Amino acid sequence: MTTPLKHSHFPFRSSSSSTALYDQDQDQDQVPANSSHQMDQIAESTFLNYKISKHDHTSGSGSGGMGIAIVWFRNDLRVLDNEALFTASISSQKVLPLYCLDPRIFNSTTHYFGFPKTGALRAQFLIECLVDLKKNLIKLGLNLLIRHGKPEEIIPTLVFAHKETCSEEVNVERLVSSCLQKMALASPAGPSTHPTSTDSAKLQLIWGATMYHIDDLPFNISCLPDVYTQFRKSVESKSKVRGCIKIPSSLDPPPSIGDWGHVPSLDQLGFHEQKASFIMINTSRGGPRKVKSSWSQNQLLFEAWRDGCTGYPLIDANMKELAITGFVSNRGRQIVCSFLVRDMGIDWRMGAEWFETCLLDYDPCSNYGNWTYGAGDSLHNIL
Predict the structure, then answer these.
(1) Which residues are annotated as part of the binding site for FAD?
(2) Cα–Cα 20 to 30 A to 92, which of 11, 62, 191, 292?
(3) Could you give the dihedral angle defined by the CA atoms of residues 315, 321, 323 and 329, in that order, rounded to the nearest 10 degrees?
């Protein structure tokens, strides 16, 4: 049983690294989205498709717990169907949403070839997501606390967050949990009206990384089928996708904080706005096993592929689309991957790391998994 801290134990302090960039009105103007009324209608129609008997007691506003719970937003930057936010709202008196701008995401490079870990397009996409998240939290009566720094140095109390599955994110979870345990051990003993030190510094992670919840699988996770088709047939016949979780329409006001921080600009994250003038780009919506390959790392050939200057129109069009929009269709990704590794003979890791830099929808598992598959190197221990 985890118990959130009471208000007098609330440990956040203003940080000089949380520099205001621009005011909130400017933030909201930059979000290219549907109107608030349209978004509310979409949310309501989504909720009507589900019966949430498990959470019927949450129909009102207000919460059933004590103390303050911090909801650590990470990669799931939404209010709709957010189990971490829901869990905090029913277990604590007050909810404090938090996002940490981790320098390891913006100021570091990929493992082998030193490309920026996050490119300007994905950084801009993240900024727009944070603006939208802040706007939606304010609608609920909350706000979004934004801090610059490592989560393990910022988060000092009970946290509800979605469990991540990839190595870098999991390592951050371990660091946060370790720091919280050290805080608990350092707390002075003796009578207190606050929760005990063992209860006041715990990290509670909520599973939210998969369509089927890990607890609903028809087999033990240690018995996961080796073939995807076996997995798919088993879960489709024996498991159900959980219903959408509805957050109360309003929540108690968050704790009083002097400086909530602001959504940063690209400049503040160390990026420059990208501009291009490719007139044909539409910017609207819309091998044998165990055979070692000798990969080339020819920089000139790689740069020709990266910049869309190979002389092959289909390849160049896809790479220019990636550079300008941060997105390429699934088929386009397969084509440029095959061209780089099979026709140019370039190390597939260079392509994978460049995709990590550029893609708005970057995900470590799908990106590196697809590149190893495309390179015929599926046994490579990359994940």
Answers:
(1) 361-363
(2) 191
(3) -80
Give the three-class secondary structure for 242.
coil
CA dihedral 139, 140, 141, 145 (to 10 degrees): -90
Rounded CA separation 135/263 (Å): 11
Cβ-contact 40, 232 below 8 angstroms? no
Q: How many beta carbons lie within 10 A of that of residue 269, not counting itself?
A: 20
Cβ atoms 135, 28 nearer than 8 A: yes
pTM equals 0.55
In angstroms, the CA 99 to CA 362 distance is 19
- Give the model confidence (pLDDT) of 249-276 as tens digits: 777 777 677 777 888 888 888 877 766 6
Nearest-angstrom CA–CA distance, 311 and 305: 9
Q: Where are the alpha helices (DSSP H) in the chain?
A: 24-29, 36-48, 83-91, 103-106, 120-139, 151-154, 167-186, 228-238, 299-306, 313-325, 330-338, 348-358, 364-374
Which CA distances in Å does 244 have to 59, 90, 116, 121, 176? 14, 16, 36, 30, 29
d(CA 146, CA 133): 11
> Which residues, other chains included, contact 186 with Cβ-Cβ below 8 Å and sequence gap of 6+?
none
Region 98-127: mean pLDDT is: 92
pLDDT in tens, 58-97: 444 444 566 778 888 988 899 988 888 988 888 878 888 9
Closest CA to 146 of 270, 309, 269: 269
Separation between Cα atoms, residue 358 and residue 373, nearest integer Å = 20
Residue corresponding to tokens 């900024």: 127
Question: Annotated binding site, which residues?
Answer: 361-363
- Please give the pLDDT value at position 188: 42
d(CA 176, CA 340): 39
* 13 pLDDT above the threshold of 80: no
Q: What's residue 211's pLDDT?
A: 81
Say what the pLDDT of residue 329 is: 96
**Domains, the chain, with CATH or none:** 7-238 (3.40.50.620), 275-383 (1.10.579.10)
Is 134 or 163 the better-scoring residue by pLDDT? 134
Cα–Cα dist 52/48, whole Å: 10
